[in-house]
Amino acid sequence: MTKLPKDFLWGGALAANQFEGGYDQDGKGLSVIDVMTSGAHGKAREITQDIDPQKYYPNHIGIDFYNRYKEDIALFNEMGLKCLRTSIAWSRIFPNGDEIEPNEAGLQFYDHVFDELIKYGIEPVITLSHFEMPLHLAREYGGFRNRKVADFFAHFAETVFKRYKDKVKYWMTFNEINNQMDTDNPIFLWTNSGVSIDENENSEEVLYQVAHNELIASAKAVKIGKEINPNFEIGLMISHVAIYPYSCNPEDMMEFVKANRLRFFFPDVQVRGYYPGYANKMFEQKGYHIGWQEGDEKILKEGTVDYIGFSYYMSTVVKHDVESYKGENVTNGGLNHSVDNPFIQQSDWGWAIDPTGLRYTLNTLYDRYQIPLFIVENGFGAVDEFNEHGEINDTYRIDYLKAHIDAAIKAADEDGVDLMGYTPWGIIDIISFTTGEMKKRYGLIYVDRDNNGHGTLERKKKASFDWYRNVIETNGESLNSY
């Protein structure tokens, strides 16, 4: 007997800005990521004021899905995908973001993509905003600092909800809405919300002001969507890095509790429809004004989500007196008290490899919220090399995915978690978000393109392609054959 429901959504995940390309085709406007250069070899990307012809902007071409979507969707069908999680590029529909009328050519492109997916029985799972805010809204309005942008987003959402009401059932509002709370890397706040912080500002207060406007935007979109099609399933999307306390020292446990509040703040509001007590107390103690307006309580209450979509790549450990720790810190998921975990391995990029952390995450989220969960990102970034037979035998990626799928199945089958689906990140090689690299590959399909934009863009199946097809065919019963 299968351990997962028959309608389990096996798929793959992508973002329009990282794979579509066509940045200036058919009336598309510039987005916040179109002015981000490559920061390859582990370096953060630069945000430029305008497009500098002397610099390389990898997202402008991506992997050219815009002109190759039929070829790629045929490959997704051959792999057996039941769904494809991707996004609609906001600036393809409203080039500046503040127009009344949409760009018809942009709408038609997604009609073609969704029709092609549906032809093969692949369910579109669509994120409304995945780091694709129109640049005009960031430059002229200050992004989500400005309450007007919440209304522009609601108008965008209404437009695409109406257009695709009979083609798309599953939606999410904002991708990894919580990642912008990491002030150590300004590209998150810029890409999430089109916001930059000045040196003389209280960054934490600004972050919560921006977050409030985005939470209002999300709630408005959910309500609008449900009015257009009551059968829509509309979720949130967060990044979840599992957190462990360093020890049973009560101070480490309290550090763990405090650290988790950044994990739970957004879903607490989006699932429950009101601000949690710990947030209200913090605003009161620090004298923060988040831009609350009359009627916001009603908006949040009426715009709660149906499910939780989340990304999971790694876990981290927090220690209350981190300054006393002598080890080497791993990638910390935005936490200042993180230390390394001696019980797990790391990837070449310093990301902790922890499949049990996924089972822990699924249990934690389901116990807290009791609504369906959807793993919409999980994957292994690595340098892929061809062997002497011209093949990519990526057993390391298979091992990673196998272990995480096994953990997810245990959470559903043994722990009772209501799990909707699993869509590994970068199902086909795409531009890395944080660095703009092609070298860091997640795909089960290889794309011939390098960090400098050279290559034929030819697609080629990796060993993981056939392995994942077998996983889907057996609904997760067979994880070992490769």
3D architecture notes:
The longest helix has 26 residues, at 203-228. With 482 residues, this protein is α/β, with parallel strands linked by helices. Helices cover 38% and strands 13% of the residues. The protein has a single domain, classed as TIM Barrel. It has helices spanning 16-19, 65-79, 90-93, 104-119, 135-141, 147-163, 186-193, 203-228, 250-272, 277-286, 296-302, 355-369, 395-413, 463-473, and strands at 9-13, 83-87, 123-129, 170-174, 233-239, 242-245, 307-311, 315-318, 338-339, 345-346, 352-353, 373-377, 419-422, 445-447, 459-461. It contains 14 helices and 15 strands.
Estimate what percentage of residues fall within beta strands.
Answer: 5-15%
**Which structural class fits the helix and strand makeup?**
alpha/beta
Q: How would you write the strand order of the largest sheet?
A: 1-2-3-4-5-7-12-13
**What's the gyration radius in Å?**
21 Å
Could you say how many structural domains there are in total?
A: 1
* Total of DSSP H or I helical runs spanning 4+ residues: 14
Beta strand count = 15
CATH superfamily: Glycosidases
Whole-number average pLDDT? Answer: 94
- Gap between N and C termini: 22 Å
